[in-house]
């Protein structure tokens, strides 16, 4: 087994889908179960680890999240929570989808949780037409069907056009 | 009870209380002081927040002339009384105003939602939820959708509707820990427009304390203008049971029973009550509803009691109480159905001190003094 995990100063290199390389401290990389398993299974840390599904912009965000969570002690949960909400605050839906994909691929459960929750919360308090646009979902209702569903749930739509 | 009061409350944390007095089931005595938290569980907190009191639910009962009962076993409620009407505004937002009467609160504990079935068939139904995400990740997101927001989601497209409004999805959310505890209330609502009701209209509303979201329960299809009057509503494992009382428009006594299921968000008509009954006591445990007292269609006060098995949709008569009790309050505590106070036909509103309880195991009624 790799004994290198014990050495916090060691770094490894991740390579994004668009070819950018990121030098990451090992204890930060361990936030990802995928990377942890790779290191446990004796991958040489000298190798560049390719992440073909994650672009540089997303990977930078993911590593920012990992660094914050790796560096913070467990007693600073409140600080982490405010970091998390600030981290996602102005993110558009495309970036959130990329984060969910990356968090899922790299197996970073905390990040998957907050990004998926953020996406779900987007649906709250929005008219359904806007939800369709945001998620690029095609409307397959006939106008009559839509009116019927709307009528069934009319209490939910007070205040919406 | 030491004295007669028409406004009283009962709680199932091991005490009955009445104005500023509480009856300790364990010690079997009455105490003339309030204890903080006597209302039991989270209800005290919720009621406190809304009314801005710090003395616990009981002071709300006293100070606001709200009568009724606080229950347990996943159930807490406050029953309203007195004049005035409450005005709610902006139900779809979190800025809601409750000006006066909070008519009844049913607070559901974690036992409210039934345990979901072990597995959820997810293979074929969930296709292409989000065009830009794999299905399992789209489901990860939608699983975190609030119960209220699912109605908006249902309007987006057919697939979302089929998913979000399905019982399987509800159980999936329950299993993964994404359902929220609701507080269900009966409130008098200011209704806009012309409705054939000359009295405040009563509606069921829901508040999710965790997310601070308000919602309404759809009206019972047979009662579009509001709930019956002087009826009862209880909750059991993700269901609400509405029964008896008077038709809100004609004021005719009714025997109707309706069950609302949170899993599907819909009302289902069930087997009628054996006879018309209003102003009665009701409580529930393990999907069985107990009713007792109240009065019949001729305003004769009743001592009779029945139980209703929600799953079997079946009414069964119980032995009668020792005394007739109109406008009594009921609560299941442990293995006993307690019926508190009330008055006989001849007494005309003069409430009694007596309390009796039905042993679910023993099958007979006993006065509280004998307990």
What does this structure look like?
The complex is a heterodimer of chains A (161) and B (371). In chain A, β1 (11-15) and β2 (21-25) form a beta hairpin. In chain A, 54% of the residues lie in helices and 8% in strands. Chain A has a three-stranded mixed beta sheet. Chain A has helices at residues 26-29, 33-40, 56-71, 77-88, 93-106, 109-123, 128-135, 143-152, and strands spanning 11-15, 21-25, 48-50. Chain A is mainly α. The termini of chain A are far apart. Chain B has a four-stranded antiparallel beta sheet with strand order 1-2-3-4, with no helix packed on it. Chain B is built from six helices and 20 strands. Chain B starts with 8 loop residues before the first strand and ends with a strand. In chain B, a hairpin with a 2-residue loop joins β13 and β14 (288-292). Chain A binds chain B through residues 94, 97, 100-101, 104, 112, 116-117, 119-121, 123-128, 131-132, 135-141, 145-146, 149-150, 152-153, 155-160, and chain B through 90-93, 129-134, 137, 140-146, 148-149, 151-161, 213, 215-216, 218. Chain B: InterPro entries: F-box-like_dom_sf, F-box_dom, Kelch-typ_b-propeller, Kelch_1, KMD1-4. Chain B: This is F-box domain-containing protein. Chain B: Residues 133-173 form the F-box domain. Chain B: Pfam families: F-box, Kelch_KLHDC2_KLHL20_DRC7.
Condensed summary:
Chain A: Part of a SCF (SKP1-cullin-F-box) protein ligase complex. Chain A is mainly alpha-helical and about 160 residues long.
